[in-house]
Amino acid sequence: MKHPPILETERLVLRPFQISDAARVKTLAGASEIYETTLNIPHPYENGMAEKWIASHASQFYEGNGVNLAVTLKADGLLIGAIGLHATLRHQRAELGYWIGVPYWGNGYCTEAAIAISRYGFNVVNYHKIASMHMQCNPASGRVMEKAGMCKEGILIDQVVKDGRYHTMIVYGIINREQRLAADGENAANDV
Ligand SMILES: CC(C)(COP(=O)(O)OP(=O)(O)OC[C@H]1O[C@@H](n2cnc3c(N)ncnc32)[C@H](O)[C@@H]1OP(=O)(O)O)[C@@H](O)C(=O)NCCC(=O)NCCS
After folding, report:
1. Which one of 44, 78, 123, 141 is most buried, by most CB atoms within 10 A?
2. Which atom of ligand 1 is nearest to the CA of 133?
3. How far is the CA of 43 from the centre of ligand 1 (A)?
4. Burial letters for 93-114: b for 16+ Cβ neighbours within 10 Å, e otherwise?
């Protein structure tokens, strides 16, 4: 895990952000549609916020706290979104987060990116679990989690407050299958 990865899929390249991406991030992440279904994206998205966010990525990665990658189109390099794994190393677990710019919704891009970064998380970083949660009012995100192979684990009623309203969160997760099989094998051996 020496450097942040560059991950290629059929239609996408997921690569580390550069400061030169800041204006594009401000435009896309600053849309009210992105704010409405997320908990940590500011609105209005003011000047300098994208630069500060991008500048935080290197220490996040090198301290083992996960990775944020720009979702770009393979065909022309256009940045269309962001995807990240935010790690809790003590538990060998990462939380998956993402947004895709509104003009690019509904093309399967987020699912493609989620599958790629989850593979990286399991095969390269060796997380035991990747988890995520979405607001109940955001079924598209739940669909992405399902299509990326995650299982619905539960519902947290009125878990968060956003703009004065309580929101119920739906929790998803996926276990690193190889590790799970290894653990099952150990348990079976102990049973004998
Ligand atoms: C959630 C988000 C990332 C999805 O990105 P995307 O690239 O459009 O996702 P995909 O195209 O891979 O998949 C979207 C799926 O949701 C489905 N969907 C869209 N709107 C839906 C709705 N209102 N109800 C149910 N399913 C819906 C789509 O039909 C598609 O499923 P399908 O392939 O079975 O038809 C995007 O909408 C977004 O950025 N939203 C704002 C930020 C956000 O909510 N981030 C996640 C926070 S948990």
Report:
1. 141
2. 48
3. 20
4. bbbbbbbbbeeeeeeebbbbbb
Q: How many residues does the chain have?
A: 192
* pLDDT tens-digit readout, 170-188: 999 999 986 555 666 665 5
> For residue 190, is pLDDT > 60?
no
Q: Is 140 in the pocket of ligand 1 (CB under 6 A)?
A: yes
Ligand 1: residue of 143, 156, 162, 172 to mutate (most ligand atoms within 8 A of CB) is 143
Q: What is the amino acid identity at position 102?
A: V
Per residue, the 3-state secondary structure of 21-53, as one string, reads HHHHHHHHHCCHHHHHCCCCCCCCCCCCHHHHH
**Residue 148 Cβ contacting ligand 1 at under 6 Å:** no
Question: Which amino acid makes up residue 112?
Answer: E
Instruction: Spell out the domain ranges in the chain.
Output: 7-191
Position 192 scores a pLDDT of: 42
24: CA distance to ligand 1 center in Å?
21
Per-residue pLDDT tens over the stretch 33-64: 999 999 999 999 999 999 999 999 999 999 99
CATH number of 7-191: 3.40.630.30
Q: What is the pTM of this model?
A: 0.94
